[in-house]
Amino acid sequence: MKPETIPGVDETGAQRLDVRVRRDGSVSEAQDWLADEVPVALIFNGISHAVMLATPSDLEDFALGFGLTEGLLARADELYGVDVQPDPAGVRIEMEVSSACFARLKDKRRSMAGRTGCGLCGTESLEQVEPPLRPLAPCTTPLSPPAIAAALRAMPSHQALQQRTGATHAAAWCSLAGDVLLVREDVGRHNALDKLVGAMVEAGIDPRDGFCCITSRASVEMVRKAVAIGITALVAVSAPTSRAVATARRAGLALAGFARRDDLVLYSDADRFR
């Protein structure tokens, strides 16, 4: 279910405010749309595991995607129910999960306050930064640079929140032909990818039958989340980090960065981009 109206938050994930604009030496009164960024608590069987600053839209997708990419849910059917509720401090996502998932959560539980630019807040040891990651099964399906360029050209028309606010990232699932099939937006790039993963699983999409485009840099966490769900190709409009590239190469993920117009920089599994 979708949350009830949250004070000060538009149901589309944005709110309109009165502002004063100065341009070319003149001042005028206007209204501006701002993306919402609220604390979202992810609660598993009554236990709060994480609080993320996120855009309060597509939160059911977020719950499922976060559970899967963080390794808390081994399968989608371990999530029995999701209840999104407003809270005076933000939003609560109450999840009913299997006993196996709950046991996993208790093993991994840590105090973590997520922020839009950081994926390690609250991590207690170096070993928690990069737990073991199962490599992808080899994938030889070719990726067409013209198809990637077509998807990149089409993405802005699917980013309604970005068009209104200029403040959100997007993650898109695209067919091998370059069609944009699913898009999710959020102020946080990790959150946008989690939302996309949840939507893909709900739609029954095969993560090996296409590629993922992200409107951000490719951090190691973005790479790990893609690999965790079985995505075999990740295309970023900005740069990857060195750790992201090393992780992609170890895991067998095809990774491209600086994807703009017809240009790509190929960092991992370059032979797939034919």
UniProtKB/TrEMBL annotation:
GO molecular function terms listed in the Swiss-Prot or TrEMBL record: sulfur carrier activity; sulfurtransferase activity
Q: Which GO terms describe its cellular component?
A: cytoplasm
Task: List the active-site residues.
Answer: C118
Give the keywords, sorted: Cytoplasm, Molybdenum cofactor biosynthesis
- One Pfam match: FdhD-NarQ
Which locations, inside or outside the cell, does it occupy? Cytoplasm
Q: Name one GO biological process term.
A: Mo-molybdopterin cofactor biosynthetic process
Please name the PANTHER family in this protein's record.
FORMATE DEHYDROGENASE, SULFUR CARRIER PROTEIN FDHD
Concerning its family, UniProt says: Belongs to the FdhD family.
Q: What does this protein do?
A: Required for formate dehydrogenase (FDH) activity. Acts as a sulfur carrier protein that transfers sulfur from IscS to the molybdenum cofactor prior to its insertion into FDH.
Q: What is this protein called?
A: Sulfur carrier protein FdhD
